[in-house]
Amino acid sequence: MSKSKEDSNIVDVLVVGGGVNGVGVALDAAGRGLSVTLCEKGDLAGATSSSSSKLVHGGLRYLEHYEFRLVKEALAEREVLLQKAPHIMWPLRFRLPHQKHLRPAWMIRIGLFLYDSLAKRNLLARSKKLITSSKGPLVKDISTCFEYSDGWVDDARLVVLNAIAAQDQGATIQTRTECVSAQKEGALWNVVLRNDQGKTFTVKAKSIVNAAGPWAVSFLDRLVDIKNPNAMRMVKGSHFVVPKLYDTDEAYILQNKDGRIVFVIPYEEDFSLVGTTDEDFQGNPLDAAISQEETDYLVDVVNTYFKTKITTDNIVHSYSGVRPLLEEKNASAQELTRDYKVELKGEAGEPVLLNIFGGKITTYRKLAEHAVDKLVSCFPRAKKAWTKEVPLPGGAFSDKASLKSELQSSYPWLSASVIERYVRQYGLLCHKFLTGVSNVDGLGQDFGAKLYQAEVDYLISFEWAQTVEDVLWRRTKHGLRLSDAQKQVLSHYIEGKVTSLQQRSEMREIA
Predict the structure, then answer these.
(1) What CATH code is carried by the domain that includes residue 438?
(2) What are the names of the required cofactors (predicted)?
(3) 356 and 211 in a common domain
(4) Do 360 and 410 belong together in one domain?
(5) Closest CA to 251 of 273, 269, 268, 266
(6) Which whole number is the average pLDDT over 300-324?
(7) For range 480-503, the mean pLDDT
(8) Taking the chain, what is the end-to-end CA distance rounded to the nearest angstrom?
(9) How far apart are CA 40 and CA 23, in angstroms?
(10) For 299-317, what is the mean pLDDT?
(11) Within 13 Å of residue 278, how many CA atoms lie on the same side as its CB?
(12) What is the pTM of this model?
């Protein structure tokens, strides 16, 4: 039986927010048979979800705050995610240099034993103690490290891949579209949306999922007659990128005398990523930027541990993200829990509101599953949870080496470095812009560092990229490699391409 025109504008679930939690909920709900629309006022992963430390981890330091449930869930999810998305995630060994005046060896040993033991299926190597070499990157005063396993993730691509998967399941993904207001009308929400072209339209929804991240509390002010008793603390975390500090593949977790820790992580082949800080933040999360105090703090920690010294002049890029954390009385910014809260509101016969507060990138899938489990109490026809075993788009391959070999055979004219990047950014999705191409010239213009026109066109047409920042910092990390002049050329190309696609879309609507 077909829907009436009025019913066709009614969705089961309207998700507000295109960060990792929002797209995770959209995917889970759409796969359970619910009709889903997601709106995001900017780009996917445009705020907190592209500004993380890029780790899939249990959170070793959370054990000091007795958050055993959170660590256990995160470690279990670490294993799940490494299998679901082998292109954008991979195992990473961490070294914790021992400074006995900061944390005694017995405490670290106990922590690592718990960390290994809490993992449900430990697919990764267990922790161990090792003696450092005089040829290593650390200063000579450090003779001992403790080594353990966690994982790395391209956080922004994780969000985009979930959005692609949600769309494949039937969800509608609307970026650059803000939720202006929502009010109850009988059993439905009457929601006003406005896109970046100034067009306003209405959607009727049986439920709203508030996954607005740092805006989750302020978003509730746009909902008529909704009160929010929850208190959130906005905490800024900042990172910077420098030319790589050492040539090996491990990451470092550095203790500081104030009790905090700093990560140094191999990044994009030629760089090291350093972070993060924790400080309270007020204002618009989009305005967050690294302060001089944060920069000096991170530089000082790095220089305390490594033979290679850095200054602010070595920094090639920096970013800051604002994390919405659950408020705790008398807790410092670094002590606040990274756990999450999922809250369902709505009486019988009323439209439903589901609020998501807090969370961390490693547990996004579990958070989404938990949220939709609550939501489906209102949708008896919904199917069961399903996302645990299903690969994310592009990730249905056995291992990176095999995929590299396949691509080298299919596209022998591609350089090894380009194939390497395609494997870890797109996995099997790279066939979407490579199939039918017989030589490098067929990929079109090289905008710099082998970022070809065919790839850019794919990102605009299939991954919601609309600006040069979308392409250079969230879909890829080529912002580290292109000159200002090259960025300007790329920006003009993207603007023209996006404008052309928008004009065609408007003509189709008129027709």
Answers:
(1) 1.10.8.870
(2) FAD
(3) yes
(4) no
(5) 266
(6) 96
(7) 95
(8) 27
(9) 10
(10) 97
(11) 17
(12) 0.95
